[in-house]
Amino acid sequence: MGLALAAEADTADIQNWADHVLRKESGQSSRYLSLTMEIAVARRFAANDDRHVYKIAVVSVRQLESDSGIRVWHPDDVHDAMLNGPKKMARQANDVWSAMKRNSEILVEGAIPARVVAPLRLQKRRT
């Protein structure tokens, strides 16, 4: 899950935080993977298909960050990096930070091994 750092991530459609958080559309690849602790948020971004909602233990994400070189970006990390980047990115820093906070979102850069990912069993959506 996610794209391996280096060559695979470098060929993704989306290469920056602002495009991923504010403008990513279904079918576009991104060097980032969005994670949230909120099931309602995950469902909203799963394009009405709960088969795209997974669970990953928070402990696993933290362990992977130290063991296998994935990078976890929290809203404050992204905000600070954007403010220190090009002016075009800096101007979008507050919007990206607000969207990530609103969605309880973190971004992961790098591939998460399948062994720590499992489908989340959800009740059927009400129509």
Descriptive notes:
The protein is α+β, with helices and mostly antiparallel strands and 127 residues long. The chain has one domain. It contains seven helices and five strands; from the N terminus they run H-H-E-H-E-H-E-H-H-H-E-E. It has helices at 7-10, 17-23, 39-45, 58-67, 75-83, 87-90, 93-102; strands spanning 32-36, 54-56, 71-73, 105-109, 117-119. It has a three-stranded antiparallel beta sheet with strand order 1-4-3, sandwiched between helices. The longest helix has 10 residues, at 58-67. It is globular, with a radius of gyration of 15 Å. The model has no long low-confidence stretch (mean pLDDT 82).
Q: Can you give me a brief rundown of this structure?
A:
With 127 residues, the protein is of the alpha+beta class. It contains 7 helices and 5 strands, in the order ααβαβαβαααββ.
Q: Tell me the count of domains.
A: 1
| Quaternary form | single chain
Tell me the distance between the termini: 29 Å
Q: Which structural class should the secondary elements be placed in?
A: alpha+beta
What average pLDDT do the residues reach? 82
**How do the strands line up in the largest sheet?**
1-4-3
Helical percent range? 40-55%
Overall shape: it is globular
Beta strand count: 5
Order of helices and strands: HHEHEHEHHHEE
Backbone CA Rg: 15 Å
Task: Work out the helix count.
Answer: 7
The profile of the biggest β sheet is: 3 strands, antiparallel
Which percent band covers the strand fraction? 5-15%
Unreliable stretches = none
